[in-house]
């Protein structure tokens, strides 16, 4: 299938590694020009070098930290200078520290709200006028399967990512008439460094080995394995595509069937 995004301009947040990098790579393989964002310039430069060696879409990078107040303006400026405009926005953020609901202090909530919710919404609003003017836009927000089924010991993530669900659905109805879609993609257990970190935290909390935690996790997934970044990224690329023009306001689970909700 031709996704119809060759030469489209995409900004992918938190794309120095993991799911963000996977999405950025998938979009460039479809011929898009992608601007990667992260806090490690060396890693971003290496990623762009590898992507550009494939000779399809083009990749460039810009330093950005979602926790900083200047983040949104930096992204707007970077999009203008390095892409010349925007067609696709992938809102991806790092996850918060593990912990229970009782451990959510006001300070932690405020800190992670800034980087995981506020920056996402304000950046999207800043880039929407151009999408409306050109009559095309794709907004994809990466969240978590925890918005359907809260994940134990991830209270901050369950709370803050859930806030984006109502926002995305509201936004999707407001911009649909302008040729803009707004969707969410929810990863289950996709094998990334983040999953390794969370499994390590759970092993320590439960007094078990990492292998025990991983084995129990895999048993809970009907597919019988962890997902691959490439599989997740392929689903994300479709939601950013031209053929997905009538798909909006949705949440797509990529979890190997792990979610028990309908």
UniProtKB/TrEMBL annotation:
A Pfam family the protein falls into: adh_short_C2
EC number: 1.1.1.100
Keyword Oxidoreductase: yes
Enzyme type, top EC level: oxidoreductase
MF-aspect GO terms: 3-oxoacyl-[acyl-carrier-protein] reductase (NADPH) activity
Keyword terms: Oxidoreductase
Keyword Oxidoreductase among record annotations: yes
Family: Belongs to the short-chain dehydrogenases/reductases (SDR) family.
Cross-referenced PANTHER family: 3-OXOACYL-(ACYL-CARRIER-PROTEIN) REDUCTASE, NADPH-DEPENDENT REDUCTASE BACG
Protein name: 3-oxoacyl-[acyl-carrier protein] reductase
């Amino acid at each position: 299938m031709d996704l119809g995004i060759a030469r489209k301009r995409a900004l992918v947040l938190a794309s120095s590694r993991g799911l963000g990098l996977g999405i950025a790579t998938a979009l460039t393989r479809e011929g898009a020009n992608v601007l990667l964002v992260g806090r490690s310039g060396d890693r971003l430069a290496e990623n762009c070098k590898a992507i550009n060696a494939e000779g399809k879409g083009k990749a460039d990078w810009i330093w950005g930290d979602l926790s900083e107040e200047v983040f949104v303006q930096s992204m707007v400026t970077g999009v203008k200078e390095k892409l010349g405009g925007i067609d696709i926005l992938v809102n991806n953020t790092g996850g918060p520290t593990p912990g229970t609901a009782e451990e959510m202090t006001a300070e932690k909530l405020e800190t992670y709200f800034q980087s995981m919710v506020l920056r996402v919404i304000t950046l999207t609003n800043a880039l929407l006028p151009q999408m409306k003017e050109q009559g095309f836009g794709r907004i994809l927000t990466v969240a978590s399967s925890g918005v359907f089924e809260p994940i134990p010991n991830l209270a901050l993530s369950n709370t803050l990512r859930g806030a984006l669900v109502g926002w995305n659905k509201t936004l999707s109805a407001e911009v649909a008439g302008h040729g803009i879609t707004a969707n969410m993609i929810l990863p289950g257990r996709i094998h990334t460094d983040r999953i390794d970190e969370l499994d390590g935290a759970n092993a320590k909390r439960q007094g078990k080995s990492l292998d025990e935690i991983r084995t129990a996790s895999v048993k809970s997934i009907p597919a019988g394995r962890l997902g691959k970044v490439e599989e997740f990224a392929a689903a994300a690329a479709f939601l950013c595509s031209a053929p997905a023009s009538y798909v909006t306001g949705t949440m797509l689970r990529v979890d190997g069937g792990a979610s028990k909700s309908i």
